[in-house]
Design brief:
Number of domains of chain C: 3
Strand content of chain C: 15-25%
CATH superfamily of the largest domain in chain A: Beta-grasp domain
CATH superfamily of the largest domain in chain C: Aldehyde oxidase/xanthine dehydrogenase, molybdopterin binding domain
Chains: A alpha+beta, B alpha+beta, C alpha+beta
Mean pLDDT of chain A: 98
Bound molecules: flavin-adenine dinucleotide, FE2/S2 (inorganic) cluster
Structural class of chain A: alpha+beta
Shape of chain C: globular
Mean pLDDT of chain C: 96
Oligomer: heterotrimer
Number of domains of chain A: 2
Radius of gyration of chain A: 16 Å
CATH architecture of the largest domain in chain C: 2-Layer Sandwich
Low-confidence stretches of chain A: none
CATH class of the largest domain in chain A: Alpha Beta
Distance between the termini of chain A: 58 Å
Distance between the termini of chain C: 74 Å
Radius of gyration of chain C: 27 Å
Strand content of chain A: 15-25%
Strand order of the largest sheet of chain A: 2-1-5-3-4
CATH class of the largest domain in chain C: Alpha Beta
Number of strands of chain C: 31
Largest interface: A-C, 58 and 56 residues
Largest sheet of chain C: 7 strands, mixed
Helix content of chain C: 25-40%
Largest sheet of chain A: 5 strands, mixed
CATH topology of the largest domain in chain C: Aldehyde Oxidoreductase, domain 4
């Protein structure tokens, strides 16, 4: 079988892009290798680790479980994009201050997922945070500091 | 690992999708949320020739009330089911089960139809469909079929759906006024597929149990109704004696499959424990004393 | 000279929590990991791996693969072997009588484990390389498989490597005192057998190499996710016959390591060989599926333990017999026997029993090679020792804290030896134990536990003390054993013309914060601002030869080298300032980046002036003084084999006694890593380590079937700890600086991992104790094991 190519158009981190790629390319391979946004990582490519989490049309998804071709016309945001918009600048600062990352490989995915959690703008316990974030693997931190960082930003934001 | 080569076609209408299924037969795979299919592609465990992407078929998305029936389009994402007021009010069993399905990023893409069509033996949605007596609507170019959940699940990843049929919608009878439902499962980690699980749906007045359906999943090759257990339960008051009778009857219903997560003996034990717990909770929810 | 020790300076950076600069870019998604680097014309490698645990390779047909789209090279193990200077032999002379089969980077005529690389494909894209891999036809003849360590030495068992005679890799016995006599005299003798499952590291960033060979300069550059760039340089150079000084290894950001990335892997060597052959960059990422069958495994051990105790709870003798299941080969160059060796060394290590005997036997299995993984051997030895301690407490009617109080070595009793004969000093078991007791609010927990039991809720309280060997010395280990692995480490500290300080480290940073810690040490020692100092690590072109980061050595060894090099630079700066100011350097100090009169903070010359004059205006200096302004110091342990640390964990869990499910409610650690440079970083090492240990205690297990096939080699099936099930972890410290170095830092990186499994097992057993005689003695502690201990199934 020959390699089937497809031309995809989408908006990534606010910029429209058009590229012709093999149809089998998943979204994160596309973003990393075709566009050079290397902030989204691959830890398993089977949906378990969450390192590849990106936002598609407003929702956080596993970037390894979606074909780039499926994102035709979509609005895709990665960690680089939401860093530039400043949407979670407070959380990012808190991650640094609280040392909620060590090697940092999980961090973009953690932040993408946490951004969705914070967008709920609701009271949450540490257990709620742990449950919501339960699909993102981190081998380094033991999670405690990540929970601390998210908890304190949620509290700060709720206080206004 | 990277996915093998395949062709990709985005269906732009239901008819288009059905036409593609007819044309490509068993070489085609339907791509819904992709949360089960994509991992198998990325691991090269499956090598379909053609992926038929149904994600743009907006007609297959949505949750509505049709009299006493809740109609959920097959392409409705898990997250939308989880957040639905209709589901919360009329299908509390599903509302209770959905948070156990995977994690947010997966629920944002995964679809209820994909879950049911895939029929993973440890999945929550097939079990709920069976417990609630749902009707599964499948469609091919030659028309629609209605399949009762009782007849849909045939075995390990096997269902009554034919290759060229698309699951288009699931029709659930709304939970009856005096019925209760309880969902419980055991998984090692939050969001994992279950190691043992039970759905209970039926009527409890005081301690009296009637028309109760107990559905077991994660221990067999598909979700199944515990027929003997149910027979020992219905018409009885829930008490220690009934519990013993039900759990020993259950031994005739289940023949658990051992897997990496536990032996058959353990799974049988857990299903018995869960049986007691779902019924305790059912009685409590119905306002009786357990 | 008005030298105030850096700890005593006001606002010293030592002991301060400061953020890491690498963290800032990582949160923005701008970390730079090896896979983020793709030079033009990069090719990609994929491997065909053996589906069998043991099979002869009869024939390999690569014609179809060679013709597949995008393919540039197909190389078999035999072809690769021809490019190698010779096979690897994973022995060290310090392990007497150790046997190992020579091993080539890829299987040559025989595959010995499921996952061993057999054929390499190089193609334009990874997907194409994998496509071509599917076209490779290998004829195998299956051979008998050895997968059960308990029977691997039985007469009649198949032998994996005929040349070795049997499947035994190594056997060793050590100890002290008269164990048999003590057992005869003991009031109680307790015996138990423990099983520990195989684990693997599952660093989130998998192994990766990006290899480039410049055919003009004959320079080989490898970007790789490594803890030990110099060791990789040495091994790859020598294996492929490239002069070592022509090799450059760069470890950019490393996405987790945990010991996995101190090793050398055949597939990485193969990719390097391909880059040399093709003259194009070659990238190889061990994807998650191949990680499970090619990353080193660890921990598979069975331990029989026996202790003798007196009625008052005093332990008078202990014995262990360990059987360790290695893989198909002994991992080169660090071997596969350290785990067993460490179990012998450290089991019952906190206690002062005068009689100890320990035996280890390591056997080869047709499985992935095992080797060092975070806290080597400690989770096993500590689980065994601490379980036996708790059991002894039950038998003698003592509380778990009480029996430990009775048996731990006293804080004022050092230096001394532990039972295994290893010399130790500067430990603080008593202080840690009391601190933990307070931190846990132990008495309150006991009351709560009793009350809840009345309501049918079974909670368990666990404690587990430990010693941990950190920062191994050059004596008795790798280097002395013949491996070219440095136990010394070096730092170069330079003054730049701008007055900035560059600190080039032999040790490396995988997120622990090594760079930041070294900057803190250098800034404190010199007397300048943190933001004047920049650490460089992980590039063998820019750093002095060192061992890298392993065995909790970075701060203990590299830290002292940095400290001493920084003091040398400080001395030179003061010397130069003395000349320029015509003042006795003894009367000068450096504060906030300025040379000042001792006792004053008024700047007389800023470092930027020293830098400028030292580099550009040498005419201002006398002819007999040529500024160096770049100082390298090396440091190694001298008297001790390790810097031992100690500590104790506490855990509070709830066991669902009908289902066997365990809920981990709270975890505490009190540990003594000596001088703490950055408390937050130390705490987070402990926390992360704990969860890694808890993963092993509760979930992680490489499950093999009887045919030697790994059954759960995906992240869906190899269960790792995720956020929802893990507890908050409270960390406390006792600081007893090591007398080995001036800085006084010991290692902290493995103290969480070492004792977490033991404390979990103790807590679970404590929870179910009222209901059963049964005890859990196996890890991972699955619900099934708990139900069995409860006699429910
Ligand atoms: C890490 C992880 C954890 C998970 N945990 C759970 C869990 O705990 N419980 C659980 O239930 N699921 C879990 N899932 C799976 C998830 O719920 C999937 O979304 C779901 O099983 C399949 O739905 P999908 O829409 O993604 O289907 P797809 O992956 O797109 O398709 C699955 C299969 O169904 C077929 N199919 C899909 N839609 C239709 C249709 N309308 N008609 C006919 N055939 C169709 C496809 O051809 C394919 O064979 C998990 C997934 C991941 C990655
Ligand atoms: S890489 Fe997508 S979930 Fe792991
Ligand atoms: S910080 Fe390394 S995996 Fe999370």
């Amino acid at each position: 079988m020959s390699e089937e190519m497809v031309t995809v158009n989408m908006t990534v981190n606010g910029e429209p892009v058009t590229k012709t790629i093999p149809v089998r390319t998943h979204l994160v391979d596309f973003i990393r290798t075709e566009l050079g946004f290397t902030g989204s990582h691959l830890g398993c490519e089977h949906g378990v680790c969450g390192a590849c989490s990106v936002r598609v049309d407003g929702d956080v998804v596993r970037g390894c479980l979606m074909l780039a071709a499926q994102a035709e016309g979509a609005d895709v945001m990665t960690i680089e994009g939401i860093t530039d918009t400043g949407e979670i600048a407070d959380l990012q600062d808190k991650f640094v201050e609280r040392n909620a990352l060590q090697c940092g490989f999980c961090t973009p995915g953690m932040l993408m997922t946490a951004a969705e959690l914070l967008s709920h703008k609701s009271e949450m316990s540490r257990n709620d945070i742990r449950e919501f974030m339960s699909g993102n693997y981190c081998r380094c931190t033991g999670y405690h500091a990540i929970v601390d960082a998210i908890e304190s930003i949620n509290n700060e934001r709720l206080k206004g | 690992m990277k996915a093998p080569k395949f062709s990709y076609i985005r269906a732009d209408s239901l008819d288009h999708a059905l036409e593609l299924l007819d044309k490509h037969g068993e070489d085609a795979r339907i791509l819904a949320g992709g949360q089960s299919l994509m991992p198998t592609l990325n691991m090269r465990l499956s090598q379909p020739e053609v992926l038929v992407d149904i994600n743009r078929l907006n007609d297959l998305k949505g949750i509505s009330l049709d009299g006493d029936t809740v109609v959920i389009g097959a392409l409705t994402r898990h997250i939308d089911v989880m957040n639905s007021d209709i589901v919360a009010e009329h299908l509390p069993l599903i509302a209770e089960a959905m948070p156990h399905v995977a994690h947010v990023a997966i629920r944002n893409r995964g679809t209820i139809g994909g879950s049911i069509a895939l029929s993973d033996p440890a999945a929550e949605m097939p079990a709920c469909a069976l417990a609630l007596g749902a009707t599964l609507i499948v469609q091919s170019s030659s028309g629609k079929r209605e399949i009762p959940a009782e007849e849909f699940f045939h075995g390990l990843y096997e269902t009554a759906r034919a290759e060229n049929e698309l699951l288009v919608e699931i029709r659930y009878p709304s939970q009856k006024k005096d019925n209760v439902s309880v969902f419980m499962e055991l998984a090692r980690r939050h969001g994992d597929y279950a190691i043992a699980g039970v759905c209970a749906y039926g009527k409890v007045s005081g301690n009296m149990v009637e028309d109760m359906r107990l559905v077991y999943f994660a221990s067999e090759d598909r979700p199944i109704i515990g027929e003997n257990a149910v027979a020992a339960l219905n018409g009885k008051a829930w008490c220690d004696e009934t519990k013993d009778a039900v759990t020993s009857a259950l031994e005739n219903d289940l023949d658990p499959m051992a897997n990496l997560h536990g032996s058959a003996t353990m799974k049988m034990h857990l299903q018995k424990v869960l049986t007691g717990r779902v019924m305790d909770t059912a009685v409590t929810r119905a306002g009786g004393a357990s | 000279m008005g030298f105030i020790h850096p700890y005593d300076r006001p606002n010293s950076y030592i002991g301060r929590t400061l953020p890491r600069s690498r963290a800032k870019r990582a949160v923005a998604g701008r970390g730079r990991y090896t896979d983020d680097i793709t030079p033009p014309r990069t090719l990609h490698a994929a491997f065909v791996r053996s589906p069998y645990a043991h099979a002869r390779i009869l024939k390999i047909d690569v014609e179809a693969a060679k013709a597949a789209p995008g393919v540039k090279l197909v190389m078999t193990g035999a072809e690769l072997a021809e490019m190698c200077t010779g096979p690897w032999i994973g022995t060290l002379t310090v392990f007497e009588n150790m046997k190992a089969e020579p091993q080539y980077p890829m299987a040559v005529d025989r595959a010995c484990w499921h996952g061993e690389p057999v054929v390499m494909i190089i193609a334009e894209t990874r997907a194409q390389a994998e496509d071509a891999g599917e076209l490779v036809m290998v004829d195998y003849e299956e051979l008998p498989v050895v997968i059960n360590k308990d029977t691997a030495l039985n007469a009649g068992s198949p032998v994996i490597h005929a040349n070795l005679g049997d499947n035994k890799a190594w056997e060793n016995t050590l100890g002290s005192g008269d164990v048999d006599k003590a057992f005869a005299e003991a009031d109680h003798v307790l015996e138990e057998t423990f099983y520990f499952g195989r684990h693997t590291a599952v660093s989130l960033e998998p192994r990766i190499v990006l290899c480039e060979y410049d055919q003009g300069t004959e320079r080989l550059t490898i970007h790789t996710s490594s803890q030990c760039p110099h060791m990789i340089e040495t091994v790859f150079a020598r294996t492929l016959g490239v002069p070592e000084h022509n090799v450059r290894i760069v470890a950019p950001d490393v996405g987790g390591s945990f010991g996995l990335k101190i090793h050398t892997f055949g597939d990485e060597v193969a990719a390097t060989a391909a880059a040399i052959k093709l003259g194009r960059p070659v990238k190889f990422v061990a994807d998650r599926l191949e990680s499970f069958v090619s990353d080193i495994h660890a921990r598979e051990n069975r331990v029989k333990a026996k202790i003798g105790i007196m009625n008052d709870g005093t332990m008078i003798a202990a014995e262990i017999d360990d059987l360790s299941g290695a893989g198909a080969y002994s991992q080169y160059p660090r071997t596969s026997v350290f785990e067993a060796n460490q179990i012998l060394n450290i089991t019952f290590g906190p206690y002062k029993h005068p009689n100890y005997r320990a035996k280890a036997t390591v056997v080869y299995l047709n499985a992935v090679p095992t080797s060092q993984y975070r806290a080597v051997g400690h989770p096993i030895g500590i689980s065994v020792g601490e379980h036996m301690m708790d059991w002894a407490a039950d038998v003698t009617g003592l509380d778990p804290f009480e029996i430990r109080r009775k048996n731990v070595m006293e804080d004022d009793s050092y230096p001394r030896n532990i039972g295994s004969g290893i010399p130790i000093k500067d430990l603080s078991h008593q202080a840690c134990l009391e601190k933990l007791h307070g931190l846990m609010e132990y008495d309150k927990l006991l009351a709560e536990q009793a009350e809840l039991r009345e309501n049918g809720i079974y909670r368990g309280i666990g404690v587990a003390g430990f010693i941990k060997g950190t920062a191994p010395s050059p004596v008795g280990y790798y280097g002395a054993g013949g491996a070219r692995i440095a136990a010394q480490d070096a730092t170069t500290v330079k003054l730049e013309p701008s007055g900035g300080i560059i600190v080039a480290l032999g040790v490396t940073d995988q997120g622990q914060g090594v760079d930041t810690v070294m900057e803190q040490i250098a800034a404190a020692a010199i007397g300048c601002h943190m933001d004047q100092v920049r650490a460089i690590s992980g590039d063998t072109d820019a750093i002095p030869y060192g061992g890298g980061t392993y065995a909790s050595r970075a701060t203990a060894i590299g830290g002292e080298a940095t400290y001493q090099a920084a003091l040398d630079l400080r001395r030179e700066i003061l010397h130069m300032a003395g000349i320029l100011l015509q003042t006795d350097p003894e009367n000068l100090d450096i504060v906030d980046g300025n040379v000042v009169d001792d006792g004053s903070t008024d700047a007389r010359i800023p470092l930027s002036e020293i830098g400028r004059i030292g580099h550009f205006q040498l005419g201002e200096l006398p002819n007999d003084y040529q500024p160096v302004l770049s100082h390298t110091r090396r440091y190694r342990l001298q008297d001790s084999p390790y810097i031992y640390t100690n500590g104790i964990h506490g855990a509070y869990v709830e066991v669902d006694v009908d289902t066997g499910w365990i809920k981990h409610l709270k975890h505490w650690v009190v540990e003594d890593c000596g001088r703490i440079i950055n408390e937050q970083l130390a705490d987070e090492q402990i926390r992360g380590g704990c969860v890694q240990g808890l993963g092993g205690a509760l979930y992680e297990h490489c499950i093999y079937n009887d045919y030697g096939q790994l059954q759960n080699g995906t992240m869906a099936d190899y269960v790792t700890p995720m956020m929802s099930e893990m507890p908050d972890i409270h960390v406390g410290h006792v600081q007893t600086p090591t007398s080995e170095s001036e800085l006084g830092a010991k290692g902290a990186g493995e103290s969480g991992t070492g004792a977490a499994p033991g404390v979990m097992m103790n807590a679970v057993n404590n929870a179910i104790k009222p209901l059963t005689e049964g005890r859990v003695t196996e890890q991972p502690i699955t619900p099934e094991l708990v139900l069995k201990a409860l006699r429910k199934i």
